[in-house]
Amino acid sequence: MNADNLFTNWNTVTFNATTTTLGSGAITGTHGSPMTLNISVAPSSGTGTPTGDVSLQTGLNPGANPAFLTLSNGSVTSQVNDLPGGSYTLTARYAGDFTYAPSTSGGVQVSITPENSLTTGAVFTVTPNGMLVPFTSGQFGSFLYLYPRADVAGVSGNGIPSGTVQFFDNGSSLWSTPLNSQGNALLINGLAIGTGQHSLTASYQGDASFKPSTSVPVAFTITQASTALGLSASPTSGASGASITLRANVTSSAFAGQPTAGFPSGTVTFSSGGTQIGTASVFPNTLTSSGVSSIATLATSSLPNGSNSITAQYSGNTDFSGSSSSAITVNISADFVIAPASTSISVSQGSTGTNTLTITGQTGYSNTVNFSSTSCTGLPTLTTCSFNPASITGTGNTTVSLKTTAPTSAAVAHSFGITTAGLLFAGVLLMGVPSRRIRSYAVLPVTLCVLAFGSLACGGGSNNNNYNNFGSPGTPKGTYTVYVTATTSDHALSHSATFTLVVK
Fold it and tell me: Which domain covers residue 133, as residue numbers?
């Protein structure tokens, strides 16, 4: 193509003028019904036969122009059955050809009433690989997204409905969405819906060409999510009247790996040997890749003595089914008390004091308490304790003996200091003796030295309280609080008795 010639001669190109005629009179009818149209195109002057297409123009919107008709020998007669509904002016527009210029006919008044429509509803779900498949039933919280869909068409099959579709579930409005260019409506965001029997309907609102219509109900079911119930106790054993905390953990695979979740709610009923001991509310706990969990806790101090078989029952709720736990065992022991006969005993250094301890068991108590020297705490130094008898089964008495230690004589003399003072005193005495007599007394210092070193050796024995070789001061005098702890042989129960020890 020579661009210069095209530009230079553009304004020299001329087309022969044409006249387009829409020969029909006023048009009335129902959408989808055939309407006969007569259209002709002729040169405005001279002779010749225009060729090409004629389009029908409604003046409503570009999508409402119903058809293109092809001229044959300058005219076309055709039945048109998709004139849009409403009242408007219809014109015919000739597009022109290489010889003849475009032209538009005069307008014809049109009045088209809407035809009946047919709406079809459906419910789909998406598979893990992204495919839409029809849905009839599923479990709450499973990998399940519902996509209600509606397809709307005219009874005649002509034209494409426009407007919106309202979705309903069991008569309650869910969502409204517009029809696409093919007359379909789909809730692309999916729909979260609760458990139970559902009946979905799609209600088309209608437009100028199509009357409203409602689909036949589509039935589907959402079943409750299954649950499992775990049970634990803390502690698993205790004395009569002890507080035991029971914990129930309600788990479900619902919403596993999904970003949003519904949690089990309701109540858990706890029982001991088939007898109800309490009910607790269930509260949300966690959402993990394995599903959801909720918890319920109950603190009780009313469990009877003996081996208690504890079970729990989850009530379930609208979306989650109920479940039962396996039994766990909580052992409750009959308790005991320990009491001293005297609140205070007095002893002198080196003597032994005694006190009677009484163990009184509750009904059903039969445990054994073993006593030893380690059962006593709070004793002063150089004091030991012993028991007779050394064990008590059930209810009974034992005598605790507290043996103190007396001070030794070397400690009273305070050994080294006293002996040294004696030697010095002996030296002073010798200074007053005449020299002629010293010889006769020469043996005296030797004797004193022997006595001094002999006294240093007195006391021997152990290193208790750093009194080695210097004797012992014995059990310190004073007032002491003594604790005697009684623990059952199974270590389930432990109590202490206290009394005062006065060492004089």
Answer: 117-223
DSSP assignment of 77-140 equals EEEE--PPSEEEEEEEEE---SSB--EEPPPEEEEEEPBPEEEEEEEEEE-TTS-EEE--EEET
189 falls within a domain: yes
- Rounded to whole angstroms, the Cα distance separating 293 from 288 reads 9
Q: Do 212 and 179 have their domain in common?
A: yes
Length of the chain, in residues: 504
Half-sphere exposure of 419 (CA within 13 A, CB side): 18
Q: Domain tally for the chain?
A: 5
> Of 177, 195, 223, which residue is a domain's last?
223
Asked if 61 and 37 count as a contact pair (C-beta separation under 8 A), the reply is: no
Nearest-10 crossing angle of helices 415-431, 443-457:
170
> Three-state SS string across 319-332, please?
CECCEECCCEEEEE
Rounded CA-CA distance 109/90 in Å is: 6
pLDDT digits (tens, 9 = 90+) for 136-165: 998 888 876 677 899 999 999 999 999 999
Torsion of CA 449, 450, 451, 454, to 10 degrees: 120
Q: What SS3 class is residue 392?
A: strand
- In which residue are the tokens 């036969």 written? 49
| Token pair 């065992």: residue | 329
Contact 168, 121 (CB under 8 A): no
What amino acid occupies position 263? F
Predicted local distance difference test score (pLDDT) of residue 192: 64
Examine the domain organization and report whether 142 and 247 are in the same domain.
no
Please give the structure tokens belonging to residue 449: 């030295």
Residues 6+ apart with CB under 8 A from 179: 150, 152, 161, 162, 163, 164, 165, 185, 204
Note the pLDDT of residue 260: 72
Six token digits for residue 227: 């649950």
Instruction: Enumerate residue ranges in the chain where pLDDT < 70.
Output: 62-65, 144-145, 188-192, 410-470
10 Å CB burial of residue 244 (0-12, 13-18, 19+) is: buried
SS3 category, 347: strand
- Whether the bond into 476 is cis, omega within 30 of 0: no
24-34 pLDDT per residue, tens: 789 999 999 99
How far apart, in Å, are the Cα atoms of 310 and each of 21, 270, 300? Answer: 95, 7, 12
Task: Tell me how far apart the alpha carbons of residues 94 and 103 are, in angstroms, rounded to a whole number.
Answer: 5
pLDDT for the residue numbered 3: 87
Per-residue pLDDT, 152: 96
Q: In this structure, is the dihedral angle defined by the CA atoms of residues 150, 155, 160 and 166, taken in order, positive or negative?
A: negative
Integer Cα distance of 451 and 445 in angstroms:
10
Residue 7 maps to a domain: no
Provide the residue type at 47 as one letter.
T
- Cis before 128? omega within 30: no
* Contact present, 482 and 402 (Cβ < 8 Å): yes
- The three-state secondary structure class of 472 is coil
The Cα–Cα gap between 346 and 402 comes to: 10
pLDDT at 305: 87
